[in-house]
Inverse folding.
């Protein structure tokens, strides 16, 4: 979204590493385990957002890393986001209106070096990503923008996908090898994989999170709310300021934290749909513990008809890939014939955004 602001205003987007903390240490701690304090975005994605080329004839300046920006722009114009927010004058403004306001404001600054004040608010407020009307207003622009159209995954992610492909899309003996030759054009690395059903199932902290969502009457994430998608969300009545009824809580949990029987029921529903014809392999994106994941696989197998069932826990990843494993899951989900995602998850919504941008048939994207 911020990259789109830069692109629309004719400026180079300045990107930084994915940063856990900025104390100059190499490692941080998460859940008692060491993790990298910073991960280069090039380990995750590719494309114009991290300095890749735009389409031929597009003269928009290429994105640059923050280290380079700091070197060539030692004294940038600092902009506090609250200034533009005051010009907009509406804390419920649509994403498109926010984009237009920022585009006009930045185009009015002569200094080629502009930086958003670190202690100011976000350009797009946190809540906008859960408010479909506000967020989806930007889709006609974003869906046609090279910031999204040319967004891809990094070589590291594609390598992990290829090594683990046998888990979710095994090559049959008579299938052509997915390796291009000098006589064969490159295959689309983001084409849908026939027969693949991907499930996104959050566990762990999502049990408490889903309860919290029920208590405050939350809706699906904005990019999970395209009107043409099946399984639309309607917030039930009976929720007020941190409290809800048991009936509402169970309604939320079924769609946010489904049980194994509820998951199996939904899978069977989708398999019998038009979009689900030909499904034969299941891949489960999940942070569940191995024992629970094994129980789910057993329950799915009992229904029969599946050639392979695998989960995130079975991926064979290098040391570097382990820290970007969620992106590997996202690529698999992006390429599914059918995806069943969690409407309250930002990871699901990012996959849905990528699927809608291709665009894939809306009935191939489902929710619990």
């Amino acid at each position: 979204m911020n990259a789109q602001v830069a692109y629309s205003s004719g400026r180079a987007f300045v990107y930084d590493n994915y940063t856990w903390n900025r104390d100059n240490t190499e490692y941080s701690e998460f859940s008692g385990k060491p993790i990298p304090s910073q991960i280069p975005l090039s380990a995750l994605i590719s494309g114009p957002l991290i300095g890749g080329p735009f389409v031929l004839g597009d003269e928009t300046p290429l994105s640059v890393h923050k280290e380079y920006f700091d070197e060539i722009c030692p004294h940038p114009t600092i902009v506090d986001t609250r200034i533009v927010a005051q010009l907009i004058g509406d804390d419920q403004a649509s994403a498109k209106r926010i984009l237009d306001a920022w585009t006009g404001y930045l185009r009015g600054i002569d200094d080629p070096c502009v930086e958003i004040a670190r202690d100011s608010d976000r350009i797009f407020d946190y809540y906008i990503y859960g408010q479909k009307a506000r967020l989806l207003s930007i889709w006609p622009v974003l869906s046609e923008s090279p910031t999204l159209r040319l967004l891809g995954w990094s070589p590291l992610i594609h390598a992990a996908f290829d090594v683990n492909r046998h888990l979710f899309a095994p090559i049959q003996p008579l299938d052509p090898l997915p390796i291009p030759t000098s006589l064969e054009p490159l295959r689309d690395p983001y084409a849908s994989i026939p027969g693949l059903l991907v499930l996104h199932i959050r566990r762990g902290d999502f049990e408490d999170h889903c309860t919290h969502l029920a208590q405050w009457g939350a809706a699906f994430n904005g990019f999970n709310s395209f009107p043409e998608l099946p399984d639309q969300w309607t917030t039930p009545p009976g929720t007020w300021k941190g409290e809800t009824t048991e009936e509402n809580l169970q309604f939320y949990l079924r769609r946010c934290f489904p049980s194994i029987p509820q998951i199996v029921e939904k899978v069977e529903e989708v398999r019998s749909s038009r979009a689900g014809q030909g499904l034969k392999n299941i891949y489960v994106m999940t942070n569940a513990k191995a024992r629970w994941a094994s129980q789910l696989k057993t329950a799915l197998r009992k229904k029969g008809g599946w050639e392979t069932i695998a989960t995130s826990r079975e991926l064979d990843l290098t040391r570097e890939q382990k820290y970007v494993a969620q992106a590997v899951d996202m690529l698999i989900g992006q390429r599914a014939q059918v995806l069943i995602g969690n409407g309250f998850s930002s990871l699901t919504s990012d996959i849905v955004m990528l699927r809608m941008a291709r665009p894939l048939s809306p009935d191939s994207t489902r929710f619990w």
About this structure: The chain has 15 helices and 17 strands.
